Write the structure tokens for this entry.
Amino acid sequence: MERKVFSLKYRPKTFDEICVQEVVVKTLKNAILSNKIHNAYLFSGPRGTGKTTTARIFAKALNCEKGMTINPCNQCQICKEIDNSNSLDVIEIDGASNRGIDEVRELREKARFNPIKGRFKVYIIDEVHMLTTEAFNALLKILEEPPPYVKFIFATTNPTKVPKTIISRCQRFDFRKATVNEIVLRLKEIAKKENLLLEEDAYYQIAKRADGAIRDAEVILEQVSVFASQPIKGEDVEKLLGVVPEEMIFEYFDELKKADIKDVLRFLVKIEQEGRDPFEFYKSIVQAFRTILLVKNELPKKALGITDEEYQKFSQIGNLFSDQEIYEIISILIGYEKLLKYTSFPEIVLENLSLSLLKYFKLKKEMGVISLGEIYTLSPKIAGILEDVFIKEVDDTIHIYYPPLKGKLTILQEHEEEIKEILKKILNKDIKIKFIQREIKEEKKISEIFDKTFEGFEEL
């Protein structure tokens, strides 16, 4: 018996087997049950989300020998021919290689003939956005007034390139990406049927790499099952795909926290010697800071697809910065994308990027300060009370330097417990507070530190 790859072997054959696209499935089922079949459909969405598969199942549902049904039998000759892509009534066309006006004219002529076996002649045009303007214009007339037995299903990963005149004559369905957890569940189903043993981390590594595409995840699963011995570990997936391990990203953050340029550069040279792709490493840094921001705003680890240990580490890094500072860091990172993509010297660009990040970590280490921006994100009220103070961490004691203003100490003492609670959340540990009045001679020095510490607070 001919062996099939996972993505074909486990390709859905009924509506109920389609993963993730509940809205699309429900609408198409209702259209069949109520006999409200539209002339044309546009299936748009990222790769590997089931657009062509859904189109085939819909075509089977319309043409099954047992009658129009939401549960095609998959046993009759018509269903089998559609599954094998050799049905004379369900014509699949690749829009990328049949994109000219001549091909569309030929389609238009053939569409006039009645279906041979089924009830409908169904045209499935994949990557329809690749058709030329002339081809779209030639398609427009038959799309507007097709014979009653002709149905069109267009699939595209780029609906913005499909003319509005075409879209307006279609019922549009947007296919969404699968979440990490949805992909993990799918992979576990396949692994069970194939008698594959994977560690939990391996499932999540594959799911994250698939970027929402179930088909991509199935391909990677098959690839790693050939590469590694069982039980398959997360590090096996990392080695196979060249993924930057989370441990390496945390090690990078540890070097940044030391705030020593020599250590950071040594680390970057080490990953270069290991043959790591600078752009892959860059993408991992961006993704890490996004995760830090989400963790800092208390998104559950299940939704992020990370382990308890990773969640804790991201949380510790997030406690160093305010939301505003993380926004700034992410903006800096995004600005380096094109440079890294198109430069002939990616290692130098990565070093330059690291120096830009280093200043944020260095400021934290040198001053040991807690920024007013961090406090503002948790409590605008307490941030207002602390607006003219300077906050510095010394071991487990927080020194709050307040200006020699009448009544300032009293206000601080009245809200001491609230202040302590906020600082405890930021630092993620128990602390003590010590109030210290600033001397006049220190005002100028403290003012300079304020300018750096509270920079950007006005925008908040």
Summary: Confidence is low (pLDDT under 50) at residues 453-460. Residues 121 and 150 are 5 Å apart (CA to CA). DSSP finds 24 helices and eight strands in the chain.
